[in-house]
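The passage that follows is intended for readers who have already worked through the single-chain material. We present the inputs for a multi-component assembly, then the predicted structure in tokenized form, and finally a short commentary. You are encouraged to pause after the input and sketch how you expect the pieces to fit together before reading on.
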Amino acid sequence: MEYIEGTMDAADRARIGQHVSACVECSSTLANLSAWHEAIASEGDRLRAAMDAQPLDTERMLRECLQRITAELPAPGRSVSEALAALRALLAPIFGQGTVTAAVNQALRRTGLAVSALSASNWLVFIKAFSAVISEICGIAAGRLADLAGISLGSSLLAGGQA
Amino acid sequence: MRRPALTPDELEVVYLFLANPAPQTFSAVYRFFVPQVVRYFRSRGCEHSLAEDLSQETMLAAYRLCGQVKARELFRAWLFQIAKNELLQHIRSMSRRPRYEGIHEAGPEISAIRTDPLIPLQVAEWMQFLSEEERELVRLRYMDGMEYHEIAATTETPQGTVQWKIFQALKKLAARFGSPGK
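Having made your guess, compare it with the prediction:
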């Protein structure tokens, strides 16, 4: 299938191609199977397009799904210290332990907050400062990822929770 | 053009969800993947409303069981495993009745496809000549647009075996029909 789909590495492809060009039977078989591959792929594309054309009320389905999740599986609350630990654990493999620690410290300095003063009410302020530092060090996309991660973790904070 | 494996945006939302399973992170995953899950059920003969219901159950199960995902690159493959189990469960629960509710009998994809003038008949007629296993592999590859490593994970079959069986399916069609134009 790799040869037919063109994903075979160059060396193997050249070796097989050499045989195919010299063998009438293999050349004919390969041409036919390639035609079948393209035909089924084309029909598959048309099938997907036809099904996607039918409107899907994704937002309504999402609302219903979230209602069931909330009713059946309430999201666990966590303290700010747990959220901060999760933020470090989440981003350290990507940006490095040192960078994350430095960014946390810098964000606390910029916001004038102490770790002990972090709470659910000022979490987003901290995260904005944190993601700005990450942007400065690692780039805009990295800062956006840090922002998303911080906001997600903030949504599960217990109301009034402190670090 | 076949759909590639997970896009960078899909990988990002999956990563955030798996790191912090919560309604907010799940919503992004839901918006990306539920259309694909609905299409999965529709291409296997489910009527639209049943496909929606089964998709909801699939996504709820995905939320509950997200700790089982081994690698975010295989998230879609894992999701389709859940979808397959949901479909089998539905069929089993309906099996006592004379008709499978919401699923067309006797070649489900053929009957379902014939009711929709937009969906080509050709693929339905070709699929009749493949085994059930071959049909499922062809569906996963050409209609669901999955990569071979995803199909291998979904079906718990070695990737080489998946490729070999799809190759054999093409040979079977070529032997039966000659060229695809006939």
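Commentary: Chain A touches chain B through 47 residues (CB under 8 Å). Residues 135 and 142 of chain A are 6 Å apart (CA to CA). How closely did your sketch match?
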